[in-house]
Sequence to fold (603 residues):
Amino acid sequence: MTADRIEPPVIRKPLRPLASILKARATGANPDEIARENLRLRHEQSRDKLRLRAEGRLFLLGVCFFCAFTVIGVRMGHLAASEPSEPRAQASGASIIAQRADIVDRNGRVLATNLTTHSLYAQPPLMVEPQRVAAELARIFPDLDEARLVRDFTGKRKFIWIKKKLSPEQMQVVHDIGDPGLLFGPREMRLYPNGKLAAHVLGGASFGREGVHSAEVIGTAGIEKAYDAFLRDPGLGDSPLILSLDLTVQAAAEQVLYGGMKLMNAKGASSVLMDIHTGEIISMASLPDFDPNDRPRPLTTGDQSDSPLFNRAVQGVYELGSTFKIFTVAQALELGQVNPSTIIDTKGPLTWGRHRIRDFRYYGDELSVSDVIVKSSNIGTARIALGIGAKRQQEFLQTLGFFEPTQVELIEAPTGKPLLPKRWSDISTMTVSYGHGLSSSPLHLAAGYASLLNGGTRIRPTLLRQSGPQHGERVVSAATSEKARIMLRKVVKGGTASFGDVKGYAVGGKTGTADKPKASGGGYYKDKVIATFASIFPAHDPKYVLIVTLDEPVETSGPKPRRTAGWTAVPVAAEMIRRTAPLLGLRPVIEPTPDLKVIRASN
Fold:
């Protein structure tokens, strides 16, 4: 049971109080005047209370208006003091990071950097004269379709990208059109200031996520894509990605290679110049090439190797011919089976089952091991390989890196996987010994020659600048490496690569001419070859290895067309060494002669 709520008593002053009435009657006053006066006082009290309440409300409302106008005034002042900007056409859930680190060569010269530019977009609802704007834009940009622009500008679309990148000149001409529906957005773009130079190494970049005021720059190929996360890391600050390339050497190599490709009527060409001790790639070229500032589209039909995007030095796997013979001889030397003077039976043809192995020309029934390399005898190399055996040959080539893609820092590197015999029989052992039946890239060959001839330690190619030599696992002994270098020097001094001798630089190397396999149906072309020259210089103290490969070359200065590497790839490589060796800091020197004796003469 709950108690009843007791309301507080309401005390109200009566209009006709009894005491006042009695006093008024005693003095002869009018009691009604007392009531009227009390009623007036009550009305005044109520009016004053309502007035105070209204004044409080007005004050509060005034304070609110003052605060609102103060905020608006401050905002208007801020906008007036800031730079004008276009309204955002779209919003993104996350901010776009446009920063991207530079790429420089080994000497700090810029290969790739960023450039602030503008994009062009349209907001059709804001346009005043859409037809005129479409006509003007089609005149400024011939690749735009005027009819389509008119449809877009007069349709229901509220936002249209017109151009993702504008030059300052184009921006000014568009600005002069004077239509409020044409708007510009600042953004960064990737710039390659050297144009086509080192295009296949750099690869290229494009836009990822895009907004009106910024765009995400991402790598699309080459080292730009391989190191995309590194280049986009905001924590790098101003630190660039330093490559092993030398810009001046790269320019000279590409110029010589292009001239050689045209002179030898070749379909394509590639070259790799690598430090024989550090594995640093000083230059890498592939022709035909492209401009990464305006990267072409990949081929959708046909042979991808015909595309200028195809990196022949890394992705192209070819039978590299007689350049492989030095590997066979070096392994036999290492195993103690032969020495440079060992006589090898070169009587031909060498018949093995239904297969016959022949030499390019008759060299005699017997040759020394050294002459097998100098004269490039297929029969002699095949006989040496039979003594080595298939298993040991595979193990040796695997040690040199011919069983896997190179680990160079390019996104395309995994596609350059060597093609091996399906069944490594005795005949495969013989053909692989002189560079047929196994296809690899020129970069594989460069790494193999560096590993064999630098003293015998494994080298892995790299596109990043190194602080010192690599110390890989041992491949052959230093003595075997030296013997191989001496043989390769003899090839240039009096063998198949005599056009490769560059005075003062003691070039050593081996030619390779391999028939080109048919794309379909099997077999080989009789009039198409891959010509290769693998060289080192200086041979007595090797510093660099250079590989030059020409696709389908034909030298036509004589009465008959000549396709062998000695006539095609070797002169190109010699000119490249002649041009680049001084740039590498190598001075011409007199080659030491082991048999030279100094006799003191007395008067």
User: Anything to note?
Assistant: The mean pLDDT is 87. Residues 287 and 430 are 32 Å apart (CA to CA). The longest helix spans residues 31-81.
